[in-house]
Amino acid sequence: MDRRKIDVVLSTLLMIAAVIILTNDNLADGGAESDLGIMFLPRVVAGFILIFAATIAIQSFMKLSKGAELEGQEVISTEGFSGIFIYIGIFIVYWLAVPHLGFMVTTPFVMLGVALLLGGRNWIPIIAMSVITPVLIYYGSREFLRVYLPTWTL
Amino acid sequence: MFDNILSGFSAILAVGPILGIIAGVFIGIIFGAIPGISCIMAIAIMLPMTFYVDPIIGITMLLAVYKAGIYGGSISAILINTPGAAASFLTAQDGHALTKAGKAGKALDMSLFASVSGEMIATLVLILVAAPISAISLQAGPIEKVFLLLFAFTVIGSMAGESIPRGLLSCCLGMLFAMVGMDSITGSARFTFGIDELIGGFTFTPMLIGVLVMPEVINVIRRRKVPHHELAITHSPNPADNRISFAEFKKVFRTILKSSGIGTFIGALPGLGSSTAAFIAYGEGKRTSKKPEEYGKGSVEGIAAAESANNAVCGSSMIPMLTLSIPGDDVAALLMGAFLIHGLTPGPMIFFEHTETIYAIFAGFLITDLFLLGIARSGFKFFVKMASLKRYFIFPCVTVFAFTGAFTAGQNINDILVLIAFTVMGYGMRMVGLNPAVFIIGFILTPFLEQNLDQAFAIVGDDYMRFFASPFAWVFIVLSACFVYSSMRAKRKASKVPAPAEEKPA
Lengths: 154, 506
Known about the structure:
The complex is a heterodimer of chains A (154) and B (506). By secondary structure, chain A is mostly helical.
């Protein structure tokens, strides 16, 4: 994947966001008056974002229009990206399931899923790890840290 | 100061802190030695677990993880030529050459002794100079602090990024994210878009784990088809090849001292980091060596130079953080977050408000070196075995620890969404050449900047020229310009050096 194209698109989005911050007066709500003004620093930062994003966009656009050869860091290898999507998917399901099914029920399946994704096939140690780790974390958090991880609510 | 150091030792020599240090050293070495992951992951995962213990125990434990993690990185570098961080690249060159010659024990020993010596020297410098510097920096008012912070942003942004605009853009993005939520000065809600959950801003721990730790897990997931390398120590039948003798250590002691000095100096400057220190010290060691031709081909002196400089950065990177509230690198930013979470605000006042705690932490820093020496020396085989664990055992656990850590911070399930969002963002930032560490530094320092800026505006009123009345202002403006200029020159020079030709398959 050509990073220069991503640079142009992302920089454009950042520049739009910066212009919105610079021009919109409804981004802060309520509060007292101060010498500085609530939007002073965000606008200064937005101004810098505009400058740096524009610099990156122009540099990348120039290289793109000249058809310059891609340098080392400008090539984004997409190999193995499917694994990333699956991992993020597992994490989202984990986040959605934990409040209902509880930490102790959900975590072993998540650990099994991640181990499987990483090519683990030694079932007995993997299953043992997936069961023992959540139990240790759950009781460890409760007894030592006084943190109560979510439990089954269905 | 001597009384404070003694009281620090008396506070640290208790069961809790010592157990914390031992646990930190174990965890740090294991995480550091696992190829492909850095000690930053260990610190971020351990951070939530320290919330509920005394700051002396919690912070010394994290510092032990840091020190041991940096040393642990050299184990994988020496044994399988996989440096965990750029700073261990040079150790890998010489260390792996020794491993191939059956002298892994010698390389590991040298690396350990050099690491501990470098860390101890830097820690002593930290103890001796931090309090006097903080006494000077106490003289600075809000205007001077504003310029100091702007200097820090400029230096870190321009030195740490892939290019200057990308480094500074990373910093600006971190600053912008820090402004989300209720402003502590006026009580206004900024960038909340009517979402109540955003009024408190982004929770620090999930964001930190998301931006700095999870992208490393994702990298491993992405490269999951790369074969697993098992670590193993090679043994030579000649016992002298498996250890470092006192005579050999004495021979390289001058190099260790010099490299530790270089590392300590570079570590005290924000933004340069351990890689720069290791490369400069290695170059200097080679220049003054009697056997420069051995460097890169299995030189014990080369390992000593790189490792002592690399590890000296650990202690001295705390100097700008503790005295000026400027974290010099990603680990210092993480540790600054830990200090803040424990109610200790890094900066000159910390030496007056939390004298006993800070000197106990310093004492812990020194004691950690002794524990590191003892534990690492006696448990090489154990650590190598632990670091050889297959990744499908390690990363499911890391995932669950990250989840628990993010939840523990606020006991709020929405923090997991913050973790997921910043994981994607952190990985995306790395892909497009933005620097996540600079992003975090921008995030941490912005509240200080805004607070000081507000006070500075109150002082100067309408007479804006008073901003430039202080000589400090001009010093920092000139220093910022110099840093940006030298960084531009260095980057232009680096871009002109032709990349090494890729090996063609036969």
